[in-house]
Amino acid sequence: MKTIFITGASRGIGFEMARQSLSCGNRVIASCRNPDDADELNSLMDSYDQLDLLEMDVCSNDSVNSCLSHLYSKRQPIDLLFNNAGIIDWRNFHEITEDSFARIYQTNVVGAFLCLRACLPCLRLSGSPLVVNLSSRLGSIDLRGETQLGGAIAYQCSKSGLNMLTKQAALDLKALGICVVSLSPGWVKTDMGGDQAKYEVEESVRLLRTTIENLCLEDTGTFIGEDGLPIPW
Ligand SMILES: NC(=O)c1ccc[n+]([C@@H]2O[C@H](COP(=O)([O-])OP(=O)(O)OC[C@H]3O[C@@H](n4cnc5c(N)ncnc54)[C@H](OP(=O)(O)O)[C@@H]3O)[C@@H](O)[C@H]2O)c1
Predict the structure, then answer these.
(1) CA 78 – ligand 1 centroid, Å
(2) What is the distance in A from the centroid of ligand 1 to the CA of 126?
(3) Average pLDDT, stretch 152-164?
(4) Can you give the pLDDT at residue 148?
Protein backbone atom coordinates (compact mmCIF):
# COMPACT_ATOMS: atom_id res chain seq x y z
CA MET A 1 0.00 0.00 0.00
CA LYS A 2 1.33 3.41 -1.02
CA THR A 3 0.35 6.82 0.32
CA ILE A 4 -0.53 9.22 -2.46
CA PHE A 5 -0.88 12.95 -1.91
CA ILE A 6 -2.90 14.66 -4.65
CA THR A 7 -3.28 18.37 -5.33
CA GLY A 8 -6.45 19.61 -7.04
CA ALA A 9 -8.34 16.40 -6.27
CA SER A 10 -11.84 17.90 -6.42
CA ARG A 11 -12.50 16.90 -10.06
CA GLY A 12 -10.98 15.78 -13.34
CA ILE A 13 -7.71 13.84 -13.39
CA GLY A 14 -6.94 14.52 -9.72
CA PHE A 15 -10.26 13.09 -8.57
CA GLU A 16 -9.94 10.05 -10.83
CA MET A 17 -6.40 9.39 -9.57
CA ALA A 18 -7.82 9.41 -6.03
CA ARG A 19 -10.66 7.06 -6.98
CA GLN A 20 -8.51 4.51 -8.81
CA SER A 21 -5.72 4.59 -6.21
CA LEU A 22 -8.21 3.90 -3.42
CA SER A 23 -9.86 1.08 -5.34
CA CYS A 24 -6.42 -0.57 -5.65
CA GLY A 25 -5.91 -0.48 -1.88
CA ASN A 26 -3.75 2.61 -1.52
CA ARG A 27 -4.05 5.37 1.04
CA VAL A 28 -4.96 8.73 -0.49
CA ILE A 29 -4.59 12.20 0.94
CA ALA A 30 -6.70 14.31 -1.37
CA SER A 31 -6.26 18.06 -1.17
CA CYS A 32 -8.46 20.69 -2.76
CA ARG A 33 -9.41 24.33 -2.37
CA ASN A 34 -12.95 23.79 -1.11
CA PRO A 35 -13.49 20.38 0.52
CA ASP A 36 -17.09 21.25 1.42
CA ASP A 37 -17.94 21.66 -2.27
CA ALA A 38 -16.09 18.53 -3.43
CA ASP A 39 -19.19 16.34 -3.57
CA GLU A 40 -17.63 13.38 -5.40
CA LEU A 41 -14.68 13.26 -2.98
CA ASN A 42 -17.03 13.48 -0.04
CA SER A 43 -19.02 10.53 -1.33
CA LEU A 44 -15.79 8.51 -1.68
CA MET A 45 -15.24 9.16 2.04
CA ASP A 46 -18.29 6.98 2.73
CA SER A 47 -16.67 4.01 0.98
CA TYR A 48 -13.00 4.29 1.97
CA ASP A 49 -11.38 4.62 5.40
CA GLN A 50 -8.07 5.15 3.61
CA LEU A 51 -9.07 8.57 2.29
CA ASP A 52 -8.27 11.87 3.96
CA LEU A 53 -9.58 15.11 2.57
CA LEU A 54 -7.61 18.28 3.31
CA GLU A 55 -8.02 21.90 2.33
CA MET A 56 -5.14 23.31 0.30
CA ASP A 57 -4.82 26.10 -2.25
CA VAL A 58 -1.57 25.67 -4.17
CA CYS A 59 -1.42 29.41 -4.80
CA SER A 60 -1.06 30.15 -1.08
CA ASN A 61 2.22 29.34 0.61
CA ASP A 62 0.46 29.56 4.01
CA SER A 63 -2.19 27.09 2.92
CA VAL A 64 0.39 24.67 1.48
CA ASN A 65 2.66 24.87 4.53
CA SER A 66 -0.19 24.48 6.99
CA CYS A 67 -1.48 21.36 5.19
CA LEU A 68 1.94 19.68 4.89
CA SER A 69 3.19 20.64 8.35
CA HIS A 70 0.05 19.04 9.77
CA LEU A 71 0.95 15.81 7.94
CA TYR A 72 4.60 15.93 9.00
CA SER A 73 3.59 16.50 12.63
CA LYS A 74 1.96 13.04 12.37
CA ARG A 75 5.12 11.68 10.67
CA GLN A 76 3.02 10.79 7.62
CA PRO A 77 5.14 9.36 4.78
CA ILE A 78 4.22 10.40 1.23
CA ASP A 79 5.23 7.85 -1.42
CA LEU A 80 3.80 9.79 -4.35
CA LEU A 81 3.18 13.50 -4.68
CA PHE A 82 0.77 13.87 -7.61
CA ASN A 83 1.26 17.54 -8.46
CA ASN A 84 -1.92 17.89 -10.50
CA ALA A 85 -3.64 21.20 -9.74
CA GLY A 86 -3.64 23.37 -12.81
CA ILE A 87 -5.55 25.99 -14.77
CA ILE A 88 -5.65 27.05 -18.41
CA ASP A 89 -6.51 30.15 -20.41
CA TRP A 90 -6.90 29.40 -24.12
CA ARG A 91 -6.23 33.01 -25.19
CA ASN A 92 -3.37 33.58 -27.59
CA PHE A 93 -0.39 35.92 -27.69
CA HIS A 94 -2.52 38.91 -28.73
CA GLU A 95 -5.38 38.38 -26.30
CA ILE A 96 -3.93 37.15 -23.02
CA THR A 97 -3.93 39.58 -20.09
CA GLU A 98 -1.06 40.14 -17.69
CA ASP A 99 -3.26 39.10 -14.76
CA SER A 100 -4.23 35.81 -16.36
CA PHE A 101 -0.63 35.05 -17.36
CA ALA A 102 0.49 35.65 -13.78
CA ARG A 103 -2.34 33.57 -12.29
CA ILE A 104 -1.46 30.62 -14.52
CA TYR A 105 2.20 30.81 -13.57
CA GLN A 106 1.32 31.11 -9.91
CA THR A 107 -0.82 27.97 -10.04
CA ASN A 108 0.97 25.75 -12.55
CA VAL A 109 4.61 26.55 -11.76
CA VAL A 110 4.97 28.33 -8.42
CA GLY A 111 2.17 26.24 -6.90
CA ALA A 112 3.82 23.00 -7.97
CA PHE A 113 7.12 24.20 -6.53
CA LEU A 114 5.55 25.21 -3.20
CA CYS A 115 3.87 21.81 -2.88
CA LEU A 116 7.03 19.90 -3.69
CA ARG A 117 9.11 21.93 -1.24
CA ALA A 118 6.55 21.58 1.53
CA CYS A 119 6.18 17.82 0.87
CA LEU A 120 9.91 17.12 1.21
CA PRO A 121 9.88 16.14 4.91
CA CYS A 122 7.04 13.66 4.30
CA LEU A 123 8.61 12.38 1.05
CA ARG A 124 11.81 11.70 2.99
CA LEU A 125 9.84 9.37 5.27
CA SER A 126 9.08 7.13 2.26
CA GLY A 127 11.25 4.23 1.11
CA SER A 128 10.80 5.11 -2.58
CA PRO A 129 9.53 8.69 -2.94
CA LEU A 130 8.18 9.85 -6.28
CA VAL A 131 7.01 13.24 -7.52
CA VAL A 132 4.83 13.46 -10.62
CA ASN A 133 4.35 16.89 -12.13
CA LEU A 134 1.30 16.85 -14.43
CA SER A 135 2.63 18.49 -17.55
CA SER A 136 1.40 18.59 -21.14
CA ARG A 137 2.69 18.18 -24.67
CA LEU A 138 1.67 21.83 -25.01
CA GLY A 139 4.69 22.55 -22.79
CA SER A 140 7.12 20.88 -25.17
CA ILE A 141 9.25 23.46 -26.99
CA ASP A 142 10.40 20.78 -29.45
CA LEU A 143 6.83 19.94 -30.44
CA ARG A 144 5.71 23.52 -31.14
CA GLY A 145 4.33 23.67 -34.63
CA GLU A 146 3.49 19.97 -34.71
CA THR A 147 0.15 20.20 -32.95
CA GLN A 148 -3.25 21.51 -33.97
CA LEU A 149 -3.77 22.79 -30.47
CA GLY A 150 -2.21 26.15 -29.95
CA GLY A 151 -2.80 29.62 -28.74
CA ALA A 152 -2.85 29.01 -25.01
CA ILE A 153 0.36 30.95 -24.64
CA ALA A 154 0.42 31.39 -20.86
CA TYR A 155 -0.46 27.74 -20.26
CA GLN A 156 2.18 26.52 -22.71
CA CYS A 157 4.84 28.71 -21.09
CA SER A 158 3.76 27.50 -17.65
CA LYS A 159 4.10 23.82 -18.59
CA SER A 160 7.56 24.48 -20.05
CA GLY A 161 8.38 26.13 -16.73
CA LEU A 162 6.99 23.13 -14.87
CA ASN A 163 9.21 20.88 -16.99
CA MET A 164 12.25 22.88 -15.92
CA LEU A 165 11.11 22.47 -12.32
CA THR A 166 11.10 18.71 -12.97
CA LYS A 167 14.60 18.78 -14.46
CA GLN A 168 16.15 20.94 -11.79
CA ALA A 169 14.37 19.31 -8.84
CA ALA A 170 15.44 15.91 -10.20
CA LEU A 171 19.06 17.07 -9.98
CA ASP A 172 18.67 18.71 -6.58
CA LEU A 173 16.78 15.79 -5.00
CA LYS A 174 18.47 12.75 -6.53
CA ALA A 175 20.89 12.48 -3.62
CA LEU A 176 17.85 12.17 -1.34
CA GLY A 177 16.56 9.27 -3.44
CA ILE A 178 13.58 11.29 -4.69
CA CYS A 179 12.49 10.64 -8.28
CA VAL A 180 10.87 13.60 -10.07
CA VAL A 181 9.19 13.27 -13.47
CA SER A 182 6.88 15.21 -15.78
CA LEU A 183 3.98 13.13 -17.13
CA SER A 184 1.52 14.15 -19.81
CA PRO A 185 -1.97 12.62 -19.46
CA GLY A 186 -2.82 13.08 -23.15
CA TRP A 187 -5.86 15.08 -24.22
CA VAL A 188 -8.49 14.16 -21.65
CA LYS A 189 -12.25 14.73 -21.31
CA THR A 190 -12.36 16.94 -18.22
CA ASP A 191 -13.57 20.48 -17.60
CA MET A 192 -10.17 21.59 -18.90
CA GLY A 193 -9.88 19.23 -21.87
CA GLY A 194 -13.50 19.50 -23.04
CA ASP A 195 -15.73 16.80 -24.50
CA GLN A 196 -13.89 16.52 -27.84
CA ALA A 197 -10.76 15.19 -26.12
CA LYS A 198 -9.23 11.84 -27.04
CA TYR A 199 -9.29 10.04 -23.70
CA GLU A 200 -11.93 9.35 -21.11
CA VAL A 201 -10.49 10.38 -17.77
CA GLU A 202 -10.61 6.76 -16.50
CA GLU A 203 -8.43 5.60 -19.41
CA SER A 204 -5.90 8.43 -19.10
CA VAL A 205 -5.45 7.81 -15.37
CA ARG A 206 -5.18 4.05 -15.91
CA LEU A 207 -2.35 4.69 -18.40
CA LEU A 208 -0.66 7.17 -16.05
CA ARG A 209 -0.83 4.68 -13.19
CA THR A 210 0.80 1.99 -15.33
CA THR A 211 3.68 4.34 -16.11
CA ILE A 212 3.97 5.39 -12.47
CA GLU A 213 4.14 1.77 -11.28
CA ASN A 214 7.14 1.16 -13.55
CA LEU A 215 9.16 4.24 -12.60
CA CYS A 216 12.41 4.03 -10.64
CA LEU A 217 15.09 6.51 -9.57
CA GLU A 218 16.95 6.08 -12.88
CA ASP A 219 13.93 7.70 -14.58
CA THR A 220 14.27 10.92 -12.62
CA GLY A 221 14.26 14.07 -14.75
CA THR A 222 12.29 12.57 -17.64
CA PHE A 223 9.17 13.71 -19.53
CA ILE A 224 6.83 10.83 -20.43
CA GLY A 225 3.51 10.65 -22.26
CA GLU A 226 0.37 8.67 -21.45
CA ASP A 227 1.66 6.04 -23.92
CA GLY A 228 4.71 5.47 -21.69
CA LEU A 229 7.08 6.97 -24.29
CA PRO A 230 9.46 9.90 -23.77
CA ILE A 231 8.29 13.32 -24.96
CA PRO A 232 10.95 15.67 -26.34
CA TRP A 233 11.50 18.72 -24.14
N1 LIG B 1 -7.40 17.61 -19.54
C2 LIG B 1 -6.38 17.57 -20.38
O3 LIG B 1 -6.55 17.32 -21.59
C4 LIG B 1 -4.99 17.83 -19.89
C5 LIG B 1 -3.95 17.68 -20.81
C6 LIG B 1 -2.64 17.89 -20.40
C7 LIG B 1 -2.38 18.22 -19.08
N8 LIG B 1 -3.41 18.37 -18.19
C9 LIG B 1 -3.06 18.74 -16.82
O10 LIG B 1 -3.64 17.84 -15.90
C11 LIG B 1 -3.93 18.52 -14.67
C12 LIG B 1 -5.39 18.28 -14.30
O13 LIG B 1 -6.19 18.77 -15.36
P14 LIG B 1 -7.75 18.43 -15.50
O15 LIG B 1 -7.99 18.19 -16.92
O16 LIG B 1 -8.16 17.43 -14.49
O17 LIG B 1 -8.38 19.87 -15.13
P18 LIG B 1 -9.75 20.28 -14.40
O19 LIG B 1 -10.79 19.26 -14.62
O20 LIG B 1 -9.98 21.69 -14.78
O21 LIG B 1 -9.34 20.20 -12.83
C22 LIG B 1 -8.36 21.07 -12.34
C23 LIG B 1 -8.19 20.81 -10.87
O24 LIG B 1 -7.19 21.72 -10.38
C25 LIG B 1 -7.70 22.35 -9.22
N26 LIG B 1 -7.10 23.65 -8.96
C27 LIG B 1 -7.02 24.73 -9.77
N28 LIG B 1 -6.41 25.74 -9.14
C29 LIG B 1 -6.09 25.28 -7.89
C30 LIG B 1 -5.46 25.85 -6.77
N31 LIG B 1 -5.02 27.13 -6.77
N32 LIG B 1 -5.28 25.09 -5.67
C33 LIG B 1 -5.72 23.80 -5.63
N34 LIG B 1 -6.36 23.22 -6.66
C35 LIG B 1 -6.53 23.95 -7.77
C36 LIG B 1 -9.19 22.47 -9.47
O37 LIG B 1 -9.84 22.71 -8.26
P38 LIG B 1 -11.24 23.53 -8.11
O39 LIG B 1 -12.33 22.49 -8.26
O40 LIG B 1 -11.17 24.12 -6.74
O41 LIG B 1 -11.28 24.57 -9.19
C42 LIG B 1 -9.47 21.09 -10.07
O43 LIG B 1 -9.57 20.13 -9.06
C44 LIG B 1 -3.60 19.99 -14.92
O45 LIG B 1 -2.34 20.30 -14.40
C46 LIG B 1 -3.60 20.10 -16.43
O47 LIG B 1 -2.78 21.15 -16.89
C48 LIG B 1 -4.70 18.17 -18.58
Answers:
(1) 21
(2) 26
(3) 97
(4) 55
